[in-house]
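Technical annex, item 7. During the second reporting period the consortium partners agreed on a shared format for inverse folding records so that results from different sites could be compared directly. Each record opens with the tokenized structure and is followed by the designed sequence. A conforming record, contributed by the partner at site C, is shown below for reference.
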């Protein structure tokens, strides 16, 4: 760990003490932010996990029904039935701040026949399994959008947690120890200087007392 090189003066020590106090406060705030981000992240992950399980179950039913429909119908007919989408909708993306992280929010609005239980093909030449599988797929559209929103939130929160963790570690293991070591070094140097000054003053005092005694009693020197 690199040391902070400063002049060993009381003014520099006071500056370093102020910086250390600021770093300690920032460290506490960043730790609180990291803990709250972890709490928010875990809530998002739990909701996303439950939603993903529900979506995967619905997709499994959809693929099962679509496989049966593909096996019992002409592939060309299925392609023609699904080539022209009849339903439309609008996806709106907004953003909000979550613990200094800008996260997206999706809102889907169906329009026209998109809100109705209708298909974009005639029912005379298609199988019922295709209808069931498409109904399953339409039913999970909202869950898919919510899952995409949650997973993007989880990604952004994870990145912010990592940044905050690095800052906390930098303060805790690098900057704060450097400030403490520099303050301790300056204090030791000042104490050493003070002891040296005290020793010199004591020697000067002894010399002055000796000179005073010699001045007041010159006979002692002659003898």
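Designed sequence (site C submission):
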């Amino acid at each position: 760990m690199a040391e902070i090189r400063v002049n060993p003066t009381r003014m520099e020590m006071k500056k370093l003490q102020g910086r250390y106090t600021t770093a300690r406060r920032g460290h506490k705030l960043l730790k609180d932010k990291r803990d709250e981000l972890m709490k928010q992240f875990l809530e998002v992950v739990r909701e996303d996990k439950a939603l993903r399980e529900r979506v995967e179950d619905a997709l499994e039913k959809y693929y099962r029904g679509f496989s049966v429909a593909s096996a019992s119908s002409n592939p060309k007919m299925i392609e023609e039935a699904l080539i022209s989408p009849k339903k439309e909708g609008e996806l709106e993306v907004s953003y909000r701040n979550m613990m200094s992280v800008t996260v997206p929010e999706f809102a889907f609005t169906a329009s026209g026949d998109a809100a109705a239980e209708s298909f974009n093909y005639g029912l005379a030449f298609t199988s019922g399994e295709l209808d069931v599988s498409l109904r399953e797929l339409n039913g999970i559209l909202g869950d898919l959008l919510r899952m995409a929103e949650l997973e993007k939130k989880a990604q952004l929160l994870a990145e912010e947690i990592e940044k905050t963790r690095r800052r906390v570690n930098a303060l805790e293991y690098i900057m704060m120890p450097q400030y403490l070591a520099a303050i301790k070094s300056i204090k030791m140097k000042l104490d050493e200087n003070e002891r040296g000054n005290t020793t010199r003053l004591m020697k000067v005092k002894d010399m002055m007392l000796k000179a005073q005694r010699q001045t007041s009693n010159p006979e002692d020197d002659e003898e």
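The chain has a mean pLDDT of 82. The first strand starts at residue 88 and ends at 98. All partners now use this format for quarterly exchanges.
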